[in-house]
Design brief:
The structure is a single chain. The chain is mainly α and 35 residues long. It has one domain. The protein contains one helix and no strands. The longest helix has 33 residues. It starts with a helix and ends with a helix.
């Protein structure tokens, strides 16, 4: 059971990091387009 919880936590963390990366990339591209 512990391993399952760890996998879910890892997946959640990965999704969070990926979404944050995507957001940073989008904002960076927008600023580049403006500047």
């Amino acid at each position: 059971m512990g391993k399952f919880c760890y996998n879910v936590f890892a997946l959640l963390l990965l999704t969070l990091v990926f979404s944050h990366l995507q957001l940073t990339l989008t904002i960076g591209l927008e600023f580049q387009g403006v500047g």
